[in-house]
Design brief:
Layout lengths: L7 H23 L4 H13 L3 E2 H8 L3 H13 L3 E5 L7 E5 L1 H21 L5 H21 L22 E4 L2 E4 L14
Antiparallel strand pairs: 1-3, 2-3, 4-5
Helix pairs in contact: 1-5, 2-3, 2-5, 3-4
């Protein structure tokens, strides 16, 4: 008996999560900093200049209150410094220290190596197809993000058969599937 294929969104999330865990494992060997702390240092390094705290928060997609705590930690560890903005003294600019730059300089090759190793078994054409597919999904997400979400379909009834017929609908063909608790509770259609 064949099982239903995993929905692409689930496969993508699981794969991304595994890749991010590997990045985290390797980054922790460089410095015991959170992913947000590494991202903050990367944002500052990528900007090539000091940034206001709210500018870092926007790029990191966090609230300013969370950013303040994160910057406090990085400052205590000597990885950033806060200096008054020379144009507007009410504001503060975040500068990366040499110690912060040293961590970023160590981190980028490690993250790049993890990414390269993760995709090493894909052929050049498979990598190109993956990049193209992700680009298509990203474009579609951009399109749908400006519309209100569609009403979800109700979940299938619990117990017994997933669809009531013993089959799942996937890629316009019926495939026999067994119900695994917590996995496929409703049919998938494309």
């Amino acid at each position: 008996m064949a099982s239903c294929a995993v929905p692409p969104g689930s496969a993508f999330v699981r794969t991304t999560d595994a890749l991010l865990r590997e990045f985290e494992r390797r980054r922790r060997e460089i410095a015991d900093l959170s992913a947000s702390a590494f991202q903050t240092l990367s944002i500052l390094e990528g900007a090539g200049e000091a940034l206001p705290g709210h500018g870092v928060a926007e790029r990191l997609l966090v609230r300013c209150a969370s950013m303040t705590s994160l910057l406090d930690t990085l400052e205590r560890r000597g990885l950033i410094e806060r200096h008054p903005n020379p144009v507007d003294r009410r504001k503060v600019l975040i500068h990366m220290t040499d110690a912060g730059r040293a961590i970023v300089d160590q981190m980028f090759p490690v993250v790049h190596a993890a990414s390269t190793e993760a995709f090493a078994h894909l052929s050049d054409s498979d990598r190109a197809q993956l990049i193209e597919s992700l680009s298509i999904v990203r474009t579609r997400l951009s399109e749908i993000s400006s519309s209100p979400p569609a009403s979800p379909k109700p979940r299938a009834a619990r117990g017994g058969d997933v669809t009531g017929s013993g089959t799942c609908r996937f890629r316009e063909r019926d495939v026999r599937c067994r119900r695994v608790v917590g996995v496929y509770r409703q049919p998938f259609t494309t």
